[in-house]
Amino acid sequence: MLDTIAGLKQDMIHSVENALAEDIRDGDITAQLIPETEQASATIITRDNCVIAGAEWVNEVFRQLDPSVEVRWQVNDGDQVAANSTLFTLKGSARSLLTGERTALNFLQLLSGTASISQKYADIVEGTGVKLLDTRKTIPGLRTAQKYAVTCGNCHNHRIGLYDAFLIKENHIAACGGITEAVTTAKQQAPGKPVEVEVENLDELKLALDAQADIVMLDNFSNDDMRAAVKLNKEQYGGNAKLEASGGITNETLRPIAETGVDYISIGALTKDCKAVDLSMRFSM
């Protein structure tokens, strides 16, 4: 699954390097109280029902810290697991297990939290055919990791950053001189890259569709206006553009929005409002 997002594996390696560096610096002084030759084992459990994401980050922590540590997984990324389930076990140097514990669990608890809330939203719209998208509202430095976790929770990725797709918003439109001008320039500058335009009403939607935008974001549209937008796009423009709902998405509003017939719904909460999963490591000598 790590191949689903360009650059993810290299980002993971760098993220783990940075996380270990900020935690250990010039040495784990507490772990050094333990004899260097002491061996130990540990079992990691979840205290919460959750969807797992981040196994490779845990593996990478111990690969970098001490390759002799044995990591044995009992679950896979994307699995839904019940509270008090065993996730994986560790065996090796007692020092290494204790030094790597917090960094490894930090990655796993955050990414599993992201996957879990994504699955929660995906369950709400099941059967509607809509795709739920994440946004760029991610933890700095963990963009690709969180976007990977979103896919473990059966949601989907919007653009990864500012480089792989256009998202032309109100200020871009004003600076470019209008929707038509902005879309035309984008297609000329980077042929083949998706061009999305944010609109605030049906008149702006028509301008975006006339300009042949690939995706149109319906910003804070009412459900009635979204239904009208879907009908307009289908009947007058052959459904060539994809329509994305955005703004004010909650548990209560999500299903009715999905039922308007839009193609996508973008939800910042998938990555910015996630609650870390409660994990525990049981250590034994």
Annotation keywords:
TIM Barrel, Aldehyde Oxidoreductase, domain 3, 10 helices, about 280 residues, alpha/beta
What is the percentage of strand-forming residues?
15-25%
Q: N-to-C terminal Cα separation, in Å?
A: 34 Å
Q: If you consult CATH, what is the topology of the largest domain?
A: Aldehyde Oxidoreductase, domain 3
How big is the Rg?
23 Å
- Strand tally is 12
Give the helix tally.
Answer: 10
Classified in CATH, the superfamily of the largest domain is Quinolinate phosphoribosyl transferase, N-terminal domain
Mean pLDDT across every amino acid position: 96
Largest sheet, spatial ordering of strands: 6-11-10-9-8-7
Count of folded domains: 2
The biggest beta sheet reads: 6 strands, parallel
Compact description:
By secondary structure, the chain is of the alpha/beta class.
Give an overview of the whole structure.
- This protein is of the alpha/beta class and 285 residues long.
- The chain folds into two domains: 2-119 and 274-284, Quinolinate phosphoribosyl transferase, N-terminal domain (Aldehyde Oxidoreductase, domain 3, Alpha-Beta Complex), CATH 3.90.1170; 156-266, Alpha-Beta Barrel (TIM Barrel), CATH 3.20.20.70.
- The protein contains ten helices and twelve strands.
- It has helices at 8-24, 55-65, 94-124, 143-152, 170-176, 179-189, 202-210, 223-237, 251-258, 269-272; strands at residues 39-46, 50-51, 70-73, 80-81, 86-93, 131-133, 166-168, 195-199, 215-219, 242-246, 264-266, 279-284.
- A six-stranded parallel beta sheet has the order 6-11-10-9-8-7. A four-stranded antiparallel beta sheet has the order 3-5-1-12, covered by helices on one side. The chain has a two-stranded antiparallel ribbon with strand order 2-4.
- α1 packs across α2 and α3 (94-124) packs across α4.
- The chain is elongated and about 75 Å long.
- It starts with 7 loop residues before the first helix and ends with a strand.
- The mean pLDDT is 96.
